[in-house]
Specification:
77% helix; single chain; 557 residues; disordered N terminus; 23 helices
Length: 557
Amino acid sequence: MDPNETDVEAFENRLRETYKRDSDQDHVAHWVKEYKSTFERRIDDEKARPIEEIRAEERANISLNLILSLSVAVIFTIWAFVNSDQMLRISRNIKQYITINLGWFFVALSSASLIYLAWLAFSRFGDVVLGDPDVKPEFSNLAWYSMLFSAGMGVGILFWGGVEPIIHYLANPAGESATTEAARHAMALTMFHWGFHGWGVYTLCAVAVAFHGFRHRKSYLISSAVTGLVSKRWQRPLAIVADLTATLAIIFGLAASLGTGSLQLAAGLDSTFGLNMSTPNGYTIIIACLTVAFLFSASTGLEKGIRILSELNMFIAVILLGFVFVCGPSLFSIKLTVDTLGGYLTQLPSLSFKVAPFTKEYETWMADWTITYFSWWVAWAPFVGIFIARISRGRTIKELILGSTLVPVLMTVVWFSVFGGMAFSLVLGGDTGLASLISDQKYQDSLFYILNQMPLTQITSTLAVILIATFLITSADSACFVIAMMTSEGDLDPKAGLKVVWGVVMATITVFLARHGNLDPIQAVAQMSAIPFSIILVMMAVALPMKLAHHVEQKRI
């Protein structure tokens, strides 16, 4: 038998396919029992290892990860500034290749993650506590949900909240455009992109890292959740690859999001204060100011900086949402919320596995939208997943899964229905300005255009600018925190100097991505980093139930 094989059930099935005679069944049962005992001894030996030995091994891997990830980031940055045209051309080719050839994989991975999490939450493993059995949650529900939402979606819903439904309404990929059915389908598609699938990928990563960190004395590293799949000989190479892949995904995925947010922040400053920030120099100034802000926040630690900013984000977001709801088409927004939730849940099963190989036009549309989103969520998964894991001590696996999927998705439905409802009321009322912005692909201007059609424009636009900035600062602060953890032995309170180093690196990459003023290189970089990490994510899903099988005897364990 293969001592590296850890899938006991698969091993047993292969034996029974080979040895089918009744006289062989006793031998098969003996071999399976011996095989299972070998695997369980490996887990028990891991538990019995001295903590100093575990930390020394992780320290060696982390030092190498720090060197390799910094080297890749520096090389990319130099290349981007020395030959930006070549970088842009290559990035577009990479984006096209990924969306055309690997789209089916990202759809399958995201949908499978949801099915997997539903099973995990309501299985015998759902009551396992992430931490000591008697420990209580470290953060209140309000603080926890605020940090979840700020890190997970944040500035993205501000960028796309009022414009994406209209884009799909005016160019319906599945039928006639600008009709009632096109409007309903547009809202369902928007929620498909921003709903359960994104949060499912985040949560899968979070549960795996949290369990191994809080219950198996591992550092809060991606590698902690996968090394148990292989024998000791291959554990260090796998750990290095897993952590390096995750670190690069965080760096480039976060830089891509900072780049997107910087475009919208520049548009807001132009519209609200009459500045001329939508230029390469303007983007550079914005990113420099954001960098100073998030590095200051990072220096204050998780309890102060990120928590306070996250709660501030939620406070301002609720005010802005409430204003648009009250001053906009309130009754229409309520109806749209209910209709969107129903349409989304109704279409979710078919959309979850739709890749349209027979419909070239729809497949092309999916490449530009669905696959771009899903690969982006995978690129963000190590960052958001590790961050969610870090703030989820004391919660059960079921609490973590349900809390980080259902609540954020409901909040997202409300947000898109209110801002989308306002946008629909403008378009259906004969307004052509929003459609013109969409035609010119000036999506970053859409939020401020919508606010300009409402009363108290200067106040609400200023609030929106502040909210975009604080969302960006929170995301960057969280990312610096996570990357510093991954390159400092999984330290729950990494040194400020290391966070500064990574903050400067991410800011430098973001300057290159944003200064061209378009989304192509931003999306390409995020997708490029998602490919290798998606394999690691699958390995995490395979490894987790094997370890959880040892924690099912009590109710809270």
